[in-house]
């Protein structure tokens, strides 16, 4: 009996070392493959950053941020009107889309039941995947034609169409993570529902909502097509919301198409600024988001 | 807002008396699920009434019907009456917000507000209702923390987040939060079931103190706890009341065979 058992053990042991070796090999192979894939995925971003930096860094100087464009062929000049325009358009878009998005999210997560809620959710979903040029064309027909002029305001409305669904869906998710026990605890103190939402639920979700807003801003800031159709672009500094305005991506697009070499460099410079702003916003949003998840659970 | 009690008694007298809760022919549903069937019970002032029974028998549903929290669940429905000193809290002119202010509740899992300090948690109900000055709020919060037996442990760190306290302390913070709005009835839904024995003992002592002023209704799945702290005990099974009576009688000479089987540990 013990004889057999011993033989069996030896056989099993021998086979298992063989199996282990081939498994170990396969394991190493696939791990290596996965590393390679991960590296490949990172490569384009690294390449974009590197290439944009070497082409554009020469354009970045104080004039770039403070001056209006010089006449073609003349040295110097900047694109201050693009930065101011982006600030104006995105700022107004935040003012419109944050209340709209957050209120829609509160409705969906705290009140929404039945058909109206699934309707709102469906609309937000559709808008999320709408090509941005369609939003631009729509606002052109609705606002630009009606006002008789391209304007920063029209641009911000077009961005609002793109930004509020991002804010609404992301905020709804984060509000749903707020434990039901907190709502019940507050209701049980004899507080009306609106106060529970305003003073307990929203503060608890706080930084998560901020994350949602930053992601939407990062998206809106980089949009070109809807701005082109609504704010048009501007060679001069303008802070009038009812006049045509410039935006950084629009300037990049314009200068990239001219034959003037100094303007090409400026386009790359604008690309650096856009890329940096979007990266900073996304990374901050990610860090805050992670912290939030730690708090809610 | 005089929907529940219009009489203007002397406040001290009211506090000493507490309020009587009487549940009449109460039915409750979650969608199609009939969770409570024809429940009748009474909670006397200045006493502890315990609701016991196996998991899923409807204990929590019943206690949540007494301050109209049940209807917060989507698809939930109630019929029947819950009388608060003779007035039906399900009457058409009654505001559930006012009901919940006067009938406080402590939950199974301690749920301090994570964005607030210890002091703000204790004062939350009053602060968010508005109308009270800073010093009044602080005084009321301090009093509530004392009543909940937490003051000595937290008085030097009132501005720390409430979530930093231990589980037992968090639960007493939630009790303080409920007491600060000065309810007349206190509902406790398995307040000690997530706590260690030492913290459980503290909560039980606290319940014993509270009943000198309040009408206390306690849900527990721990029969020893019911035997230790309750004056009256209600035994439920499958959404129905099996037996209701003085705790001593329920635990020593129950009328119903099923009560005897449950309290002697034959099932549940």
The whole-angstrom Rg of chain B is: 18 Å
**Overall CATH architecture of the domain at 17-110 and 185-263 in chain B:** 3-Layer(aba) Sandwich
Beta percentage of chain A is under 5%
How many helices of chain B? The count is: 11
The ordered H/E elements of chain B are HEEEHEEHEHHHHEHEHEEHH
CATH topology of the largest domain in chain A, anyone? Answer: MetI-like fold
How large is the count of helical segments of chain A? 11
List low-confidence stretches of chain B.
1-16
CATH level-4 homologous superfamily of the domain at 17-110 and 185-263 in chain B: P-loop containing nucleotide triphosphate hydrolases
**CATH superfamily descriptor of the largest domain in chain A:** MetI-like
Number of distinct beta strands of chain B: 10
In short:
The complex is a heterodimer of chains A (297) and B (268). By secondary structure, chain A is mostly helical. Chain A contains eleven helices and no strands.
What does this structure look like?
The complex is a heterodimer of chains A (297) and B (268). Helix content of chain A is 80%, strand content 0%. Chain A is an all-alpha fold and 297 residues long. Chain A has 2 domains: 58 residues; 234 residues, MetI-like fold (Orthogonal Bundle), CATH 1.10.3720. Chain B is an alpha/beta fold and 268 residues long. Chain B contains 11 helices and 10 strands. Chain B has a 6-stranded mixed β-sheet, sandwiched between helices. The longest helix of chain B is centred in the middle third of the chain and has 14 residues. Chain B is globular and about 55 Å long. Classes of the chains: A mainly alpha (297), B alpha/beta (268).
List keywords for this structure.
heterodimer, A: 297 residues, mainly alpha, 2 domains, B: alpha/beta, Rossmann fold, 6-stranded mixed β-sheet, 24% strand
Layout of strands and helices, then pairs:
The complex is a heterodimer of chains A (297) and B (268).
Chain A: H1 2-56, H2 62-66, H3 80-111, H4 114-128, H5 132-147, H6 152-177, H7 180-187, H8 193-221, H9 225-230, H10 248-256, H11 261-296
Chain B: H1 11-17, E1 21-30, E2 33-43, E3 48-52, H2 59-66, E4 76-84, E5 87-88, H3 96-102, E6 103-106, H4 118-129, H5 134-147, H6 151-154, H7 167-180, E7 185-189, H8 197-210, E8 215-219, H9 223-229, E9 232-237, E10 240-246, H10 247-252, H11 257-263
Helix pairs in contact in B: 4-5, 4-7, 5-7
């Amino acid at each position: 009996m013990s004889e057999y058992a011993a033989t069996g053990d030896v056989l099993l042991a021998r086979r298992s070392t063989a199996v282990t070796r081939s498994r170990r090999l396969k394991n190493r192979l696939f791990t290596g493959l996965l590393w390679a894939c991960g590296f490949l995925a990172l490569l384009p971003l690294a390449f974009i950053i590197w290439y944009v930096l070497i082409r554009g860094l020469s354009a970045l100087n104080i004039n770039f941020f403070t001056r209006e464009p010089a006449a073609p062929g003349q040295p110097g000049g900047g694109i201050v009107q693009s930065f101011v325009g982006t600030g104006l358009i995105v700022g107004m878009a935040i003012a419109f889309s944050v209340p709209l998005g957050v209120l829609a999210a509160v409705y969906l997560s705290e009140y929404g039941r039945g058909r109206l809620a699934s309707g709102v959710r469906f609309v937000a979903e559709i808008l999320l995947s709408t090509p941005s040029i369609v939003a631009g064309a729509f606002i052109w027909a609705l606002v630009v034609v009606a006002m008789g002029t391209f304007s920063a305001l029209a641009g911000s409305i077009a961005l609002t169409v793109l930004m509020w669904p991002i804010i609404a869906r992301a905020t709804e998710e984060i509000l749903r993570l707020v434990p039901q026990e907190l709502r019940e605890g507050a209701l049980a103190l004899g507080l009306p529902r609106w106060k529970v939402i305003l003073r307990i639920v929203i503060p608890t979700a706080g930084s998560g909502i901020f994350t949602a807003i930053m992601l939407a801003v990062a998206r809106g800031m980089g949009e070109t097509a809807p701005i082109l159709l609504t704010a048009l672009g501007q060679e001069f500094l303008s802070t009038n919301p009812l006049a045509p305005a410039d935006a950084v991506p629009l300037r990049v697009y314009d200068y990239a198409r001219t034959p003037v070499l100094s303007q090409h460099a400026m386009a790359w410079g604008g690309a650096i600024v856009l890329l940096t702003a979007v990266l900073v916003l996304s990374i901050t949003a990610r860090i805050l988001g992670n912290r939030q998840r730690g708090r809610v659970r | 807002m005089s929907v529940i009690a219009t009489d203007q008694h002397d406040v001290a007298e009211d506090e000493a008396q507490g309020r009587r809760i009487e549940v009449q022919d109460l039915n409750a549903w979650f969608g199609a699920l009939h969770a409570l069937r024809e429940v009748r019970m009474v909670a006397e002032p200045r006493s502890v009434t315990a609701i016991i029974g196996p998991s899923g028998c409807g204990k929590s549903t019943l206690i949540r019907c007494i301050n109209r929290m049940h209807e917060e669940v989507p698809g939930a429905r109630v019929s029947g009456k819950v009388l608060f000193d003779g007035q039906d809290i399900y009457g058409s002119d009654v505001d559930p917000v006012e009901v919940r202010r006067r009938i406080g509740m402590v939950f199974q899992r301690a749920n301090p507000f994570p964005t607030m300090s210890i002091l703000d948690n204790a004062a939350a109900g009053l602060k968010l209702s508005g109308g009270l000055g800073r010093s009044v709020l602080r005084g009321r919060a301090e009093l509530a923390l004392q009543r909940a037996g937490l003051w000595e442990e937290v008085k030097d760190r009132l501005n720390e987040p409430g979530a930093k306290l231990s589980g037992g302390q968090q639960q007493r913070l939630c009790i303080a939060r409920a007491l600060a709005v000065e309810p007349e009835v206190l509902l406790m839904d398995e307040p000690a079931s997530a706590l260690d024995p030492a913290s459980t003992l503290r909560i039980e002592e606290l319940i014993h103190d509270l009943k000198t002023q309040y009408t206390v209704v306690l849900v527990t799945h721990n029969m020893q706890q019911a035997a230790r702290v309750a004056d009256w005990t209600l035994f439920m099974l499958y959404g129905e009341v099996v037996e209701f009576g003085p705790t001593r009688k329920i635990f020593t000479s129950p009328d119903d065979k099923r009560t005897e089987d449950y309290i002697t540990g034959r099932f549940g």
